[in-house]
Amino acid sequence: MSSEKLNGSLQTSFKNTVATLQFGHPASNSFPRKLLDRLTAEINLLSRNEAVSVIILQSEGSKVFCSGASFDELLKVQNEEQGTEFFSGFAHLLNAMRNCTKLIIGRVQGKAVGGGVGIIAACDYVLATPESAVKLSELAIGIGPFVIEPAVSRKIGKVAMTEMALAAHEWKPASWALQNRLFSALYNADLLDAEVENFAQKLSLYNPEALLEMKKIIWEGTEQWESLLIERAKITGKLVLSNFTKKALLQFKK
C-alpha cells in the first residue's frame, strides 16, 4: 500500500457558507496519527474562516463511519511517552471540535467503534442511518475509552456510557444511539445526504453571532478538557504497553 493511502485522505469542499470536511482511510476509516493531526488542523482553520458558518463532518464509503485508532500504530508504541503522544491526537481533535466557533454536523453513514464514537459525540448535531451501530471496544483490548469518555458521557450520560464501555464486545444499534441522544435523527441511506445538506443549509441562514453564542452555551462547563483529556491520554498510553493489550491487538488484527 502506498504511503499516501497509509496516511489516509482529507478533503474540504464548500457550498455557500457550509464547509464539508471528509476523511477516509483504507482500514475502515481508522485514524493514524498524521490523519488525526490533519483533521484537527483543518477544523482549527475552518474555525477561523469567516466565510464558513457550519461544518459537516463525514467519512468515505458506505459501511463504516470510523473504526477509531490505527491498530498498526498502536502496536508500534514502545514506551509511555509514545503512547501518550498517540492518544493525545484524539484529545487534540476533540478539543478542536469543542473549541470550534462553527457548529459541527456529523453525517454518520455506518458503524463506529472507539474513537469514532468519540468523534460522533463531539459533533453538535448528528444525522445517521439505521445501519450506524456503535461500540466501545477498548476494554476488550486491555485499554479503555478514557480520552473520549468525557465527550460520550456528556452526550449520552454516565449510565449509558458505562453500559457501552462494559459491554465491550456488544454492538449497540442505531435505534439505541438515537434513544440515548448520540444521534439526533435517523434517515435511510438514500436520503441521508439530502437531509444533512438541507439541515446544514437551513442552519447556515441563521445569524452567525447567534450560532456562535449557541456553540458556547452547548459546550459550557468543559473548559477543563484541555488538561483532562491529556491526563486521560497518559492513562491509555501506559495501558497500551501491557502484554494483554499487545496480544489482544494482534488477535484483533487477525
Provide structural commentary.
The chain has helices at 3-7, 33-47, 71-75, 80-99, 115-122, 149-156, 158-166, 174-179, 189-204, 208-218, 225-239, 243-253; strands at residues 9-15, 18-24, 54-59, 64-66, 103-108, 111-113, 125-128, 134-135, 185-186. The protein has 254 residues and is α/β, with parallel strands linked by helices. Helix 4 (80-99) packs parallel to helix 5 (115-122). It has a single domain, classed as 2-enoyl-CoA Hydratase, Chain A, domain 1 (Alpha-Beta Complex). A 6-stranded mixed beta sheet has the order 1-2-3-5-7-9, sandwiched between helices. A 3-stranded parallel beta sheet has the order 4-6-8. The mean pLDDT is 94. A hairpin with a 2-residue loop joins strand 1 and strand 2. This is Enoyl-CoA hydratase. Belongs to the enoyl-CoA hydratase/isomerase family. It comes from Flavobacterium cheongpyeongense. One of its GO terms (molecular function) is catalytic activity. InterPro entries: ClpP/crotonase-like_dom_sf (IPR029045), Enoyl-CoA_hydra/iso (IPR001753), Enoyl-CoA_Hydratase/Isomerase (IPR051683).
The CA-CA distance between the termini, in Å, is 18 Å
pLDDT averaged residue by residue? 94
Rounded to an integer in angstroms, the radius of gyration calculated over CA atoms is 17 Å
Number of helical regions: 12
Task: Give the number of DSSP strands.
Answer: 9
Oligomer: single chain
Q: What is the strand content?
A: 15-25%
- Tell me about the biggest sheet? 6 strands, mixed
* Count of all domains: 1
Please mark out the parts with pLDDT under 50 across 5 or more consecutive residues, or reply none: none
Protein name: Enoyl-CoA hydratase
Family: Belongs to the enoyl-CoA hydratase/isomerase family.
InterPro entries: ClpP/crotonase-like_dom_sf (IPR029045), Enoyl-CoA_hydra/iso (IPR001753), Enoyl-CoA_Hydratase/Isomerase (IPR051683)
GO molecular function, one term: catalytic activity
